[in-house]
């Protein structure tokens, strides 16, 4: 009798392993954010998911989302309505069989921008007008522009002309920035003369 020996090569794949899950992201309204996962394994594929309040669903590229099938999910221009969304990634892969694992979830916190206004600035002044004190709301911001001296507007420093743009900038405790502007013009003094005085008179 005879026997036949066949050699079979068995490739043992390694399933996906997550060494570092996504971290919470805290941003301001309109900023960008990204979630990243660190993994090991063979032939890995990625599918990011979002929970907007009714369970996790797959994310497709488009709108604010990109790189939804990579290690890093990018969000461009997140808005305040997305605050509280949760993100996770489902990872699959190996050589001989498909094994999946799901990361922990991470939260997106989107802080609103501060509402910024200021008062005290008229639309026009004469060039010899007194200093105009300006009041920013919230307080603690910075004024800038022609004629600004600290928190005052000086028509004489700005000089005749305009309209000039006065800017008030403010950053809140969350690091969120906003600004507002108003315009002002500075008018010259009138040229005054008179006639009819001849002199000398007795």
The averaged pLDDT comes out at 92
Task: Indicate the radius of gyration in whole angstroms.
Answer: 33 Å
Low-confidence segments, ≥5 residues, pLDDT <50? none
Terminal Cα span: 158 Å
- Please provide the count of β strands: 20
The coarse silhouette is rod-shaped
The largest sheet, given as strand count, sense and whether it forms a barrel, is:
6 strands, mixed
Number of helices: 1
Strand percentage, roughly? 35-45%
Helix content: under 10%
Order of secondary-structure elements: EEEEEEEEEEEEEEEEEEHEE
The secondary-structure class comes to mainly beta
Explain this structure.
- This protein has one helix at residues 155-158; strands spanning 17-20, 25-28, 33-36, 38-40, 45-51, 56-58, 65-66, 72-75, 86-92, 100-102, 106-111, 117-119, 124-126, 132-133, 135-137, 142-144, 148-149, 152-153, 161-171, 177-187.
- It has 202 residues and is mainly beta.
- Strands 2, 5, 6, 9, 10 and 11 form a 6-stranded mixed beta sheet that branches. It has a 4-stranded mixed beta sheet with strand order 13-20-19-16. A 3-stranded antiparallel beta sheet has the order 3-8-7, with no helix packed on it.
- The chain starts with 16 loop residues before the first strand and ends in a 15-residue tail after the last strand.
């Amino acid at each position: 009798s005879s026997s036949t020996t066949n050699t079979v090569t068995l490739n043992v794949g390694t399933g996906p392993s997550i060494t570092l899950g996504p971290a919470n992201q805290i941003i301001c309204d309109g900023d960008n954010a990204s979630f990243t996962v660190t993994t090991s394994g063979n032939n890995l594929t990625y599918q990011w998911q979002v929970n907007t309040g009714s369970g996790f669903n797959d994310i497709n590229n488009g709108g604010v989302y990109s790189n939804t099938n990579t290690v890093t999910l990018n969000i461009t221009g997140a808005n305040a309505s997305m605050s509280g969304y949760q993100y996770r990634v489902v990872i699959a892969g190996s050589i001989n069989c498909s094994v999946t694992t799901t990361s922990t979830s991470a939260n997106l916190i989107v802080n609103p921008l501060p509402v910024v206004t200021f008062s005290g600035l008229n639309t026009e002044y004469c060039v010899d007008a007194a200093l105009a004190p300006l009041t920013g709301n919230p307080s603690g911001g910075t004024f800038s522009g022609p004629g600004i001296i600290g928190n005052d507007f000086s028509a004489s420093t700005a000089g005749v002309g305009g309209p000039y743009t006065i800017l008030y900038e403010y950053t809140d405790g969350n690091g969120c920035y906003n600004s507002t502007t108003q315009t002002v013009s500075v008018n010259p003094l009138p040229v005054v003369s008179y006639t009819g005085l001849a002199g000398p008179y007795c």
